[in-house]
Amino acid sequence: MLNMEDLMKNQIHTVVIDGYSSEAYGVCRIGGRAVFVPRALAGETWRIRIVKVSASAVYARGEELLIPSPVRIESDCPFFAKCGGCDCRHMRYDEELRFKRGKVDSALKRIGKQSLTACEIIGSDALDRYRNKGIFAVAELSGRPVSGFFRERSHELIGVDRCLIQNEIAERAAKAVTTFMHENSFAAYDEKSGRGSVRHVFCRRAFRTGDAVVCVVSAKGFGDKTPLLVDALREACPELSGIVLNVNKNRGNTVLAGDFYTLWGTAEIVDELCGLKYSIAPQAFFQINPPQAEKLYQRAVGYAGAGDLAFDLYCGAGTISLCLARTFRRVIGAEIVPEAVENAKENAAANGVGNVEFLCADAGRAAQALAKRTLRPDVVVVDPPRKGMDEAAVRAVCSMEPERVVYVSCDPATLARDLRLFTELGYSLREVTAVDMFPRTSHVETVCALSKLSEAKHHISVQVDMDELDLTAAESKATYEEIQEWVQEKYGFHVTHLNIAQVKRKHGIIERENYNKPKSPDSKQPGCPEEKIQAIEAALKYFQMI
Fold first, then answer.
1. CATH no. for 289-458
2. Which residues neighbour 206 within 8 Å (Cβ) at sequence distance 6 or greater?
3. What whole-number distance in Å separates Cα of residue 291 and Cα of residue 437?
4. Tens digits of per-residue pLDDT, 166-207?
5. Do 402 and 379 form a contact (C-beta atoms < 8 A)?
6. pTM (2 d.p.)
7. Which of 49, 455, 512, 530 sits 20 to 30 Å CA-CA off 89?
8. Contact present, 251 and 194 (Cβ < 8 Å)
9. Which residues have a catalytic role annotated?
10. Domain boundaries 1-71, CATH class
C-alpha cells in the first residue's frame, strides 16, 4: 500500500473522486492523503498525474477521464479554467447546488462542531449575466493594454472580452477604456514598478432602475485627455448615468482607495431592493445579485422577528437596517466605510424611515460602544466580510445578551468558526439556510438564526481538577483533537498530540506542567517532521493561537 510519504510529482494514478473541496476541486485519497483534482466531479474515475506535493496539499492534473459523471456538462465559456472566475461551469446546476449545500454542512460540522445542517439551499433563477458589479483588471499584454481577470492563484492577467456572469455594460466599458489608453499612449499600471496609470475598470448597474456608473481606477489622472475618456465611455455605453475617476496611488491589490472625482453625471446609482430605494456610492457594499439578495434578506428578516430594538452590524448602505425598521421600533446600524454610512442615512431619509440610526465604526468597536450604552437589543444582525467577525466583536455582541442573533455570511468556514464561539458563549444554532448568490462559482451565502440559551438550559455543574483550568489564552482556543481533525481534513495526514505539543512550545504556548514531557531526563522524544510542523502551524494560525 502506498504511504503518504511515497507521493511524488509526475506519478500516475487511477482514482475515484469521492467528493469536493471548498473550491469545487474533485477530491480523492491516495495513501491516506487528500489529493485535489481541478474540474473532476464526484463519482468519476480518472487517470491523474501528481503535479505538486507539499506539506500543505497535494494537487493533481486529470490526464484521462475514464468514467464520467452523468452530471458533467460541456462548459459554454472559452475562458473557463483559465481566468480564475467560475468554478462550476462543467457541472449541472443541481449538482452545483448539492456541492454548495454540502460545503455549508461540512463547515458547520467540521469547523463549527454543530449538529444542525442547512434546511435548504435557495437556487438562483438566473445563472448568467446576474452580476450588477463588474471589476476588470487592466495590464499590458503583448505591448498594449488589455482588460480581464487574473489566473487563479497568480498575478497573471488573462485577457477576457466576454464574461458570461458580468453585465454587458461592464464589458463594453472595459473595452472602451483600454482602446482609449492605446490610442492616447496611457500604459496600464505595473504593480511591481509602480509605473503606469490605469489599474481597474469598475462598473455597477442598477437592477431595477437602469442606472449605471463606471469608475476608472488609475494611479493618476488623464489631464487634458479626460474629456476624450468621457466621450469614449459615453459612446460605448449610452446607458451610463455617471463616470467617476478613482485616483488610487496605494501599493497593493485594494481596488478602490484614495480620492474620487465625478467626471460626468452622478457618482451614485439608485436601485430598489425589497421595495426600498437605495443610493449606492462606488465604495459602498451592495449585494451583486439583487433578486437573490431579496430572498436572502427576507429570510434574515424572518429569522430576526420583531421587537423594540435591533442592531445591524456591517450595515453597508443600510439595506438590512431599513428592512428591519419595518418590524422593529428602533434600529441602529454600524459600518466602517464613511461613504456607506452617508449613503445609509440618505437612504433612510429617501424612504421616509425615521426609526433608524447609523454609526461610523468597525463592528467590534460599535458593538462595544452600544454595550456601554446599556442598550439591550432583541436581535443583533451581522453581515461581515469574507474574513468573518473577530473574537472581540463576537464577545461584544454576546455581552449585550440579545435573545436572537442573525448571521449572514459569504464564507462557510469563517461562519462556522464564529458560530463555535457563539455556542461557547451561550447561543444555540436554531436554523440555517444556504442561498446561491454566485451561480457558477464555488461561493455560497448562508444565513443563520441563533437563540440565547436560558441559564437553566446551559448551566451545568461539573467537578474538575484545577490543573485542567490552568490554560493560557492561546491554549484554550482549540483542543488537541480539534487541531488533529483540522490537519487531517486540510492536509490528509495525522499528527500526534506530541507533534502538536512540540510546535506549541516552539511558539511559546506554555503547556501545563508535565504535559507531554519526557518520562525521564534521559529519555528522548522523536522530532516533529517539517511537513507536520508547517501543517500544525497553519492550524494554530487558523484557530488564532499564533
1. 3.40.50.150
2. 132, 212, 269, 270, 271, 272
3. 9
4. 999 999 999 999 999 999 999 999 988 889 999 999 999 999
5. yes
6. 0.80
7. 49
8. yes
9. 410
10. mainly beta
